[in-house]
Here is the input.
Amino acid sequence: MRSERATVLEHRDFGGGYNLLVLDVPPIAVNVIPGQFIHLLVPRLEGSVLRRPFSVFKADAETLSVLYKWVGRGTRAMGGIAVGESVSIVGPLGNGFPRADAASFPVLVAGGYGVAPLYLLASRMSAKGILFVGGRSAIDILCVDAFLELGWEVQVTTEDGSIGTQGLVTSVLDAWLAANGESRSPELFACGPDGLLKAVGDRAIAQGCKGWLSLDKHMGCGVGACLACVQKIHLDGGSVVWKRVCKDGPIFEAREIVWKSEASK
Here is the structure.
């Protein structure tokens, strides 16, 4: 982990409020593990000293890319970042996804721009698998062609049926698991909203396979000092502890996570 100045090489509008930011920052880019994130200090965001976390979409020896959506004041302010500008980032942060079991079949499940860290993961896997990606409508489905170019199978679902199968991504995942779960030895990797993550985790547990989930929490420092992003986690033996999503995560195995619905019982 280190703090660096990064030069903006590209800042492109994907449409629908989605954007691609490409940064030239070799000391950080070369060390990124799929599932890790960077902490960006948004320029000219008056009144805010906190950085914003972003999963890494692509990374090589010199550059890294992030996909982001305009969802609040911070990300909307990022629209003013210009090509050639220098920005401050800290990274790479977090633990990243573990290496997939060589005997397993990788199954990736994404909600919206949750495809970002899963693309980097897929690009570095030796085995080709399948991606299930879901969104509200066609505008929320990103990077399908990029996964196809890697040689991955892709199944798309949208809630309004504007592209792919109409419905929830978990319905299509259920059908695939019913047909292939016994023969393909799946290992699940997911990124998206909490509801999707819990649903994928429940299926991994029911299937008897590993389910690696990328949690998304509001973060302050991003390095484990402020304790703003803690999550209850099961330990072997039955005890429960708080862990920091930014430092101990953001990747946790499905059986580790104590969801709010469980904690309230």
In short: The radius of gyration is 18 Å. The chain has two domains: 2-91, 105-215+250-263. Residues 212 and 253 are 5 Å apart (CA to CA).
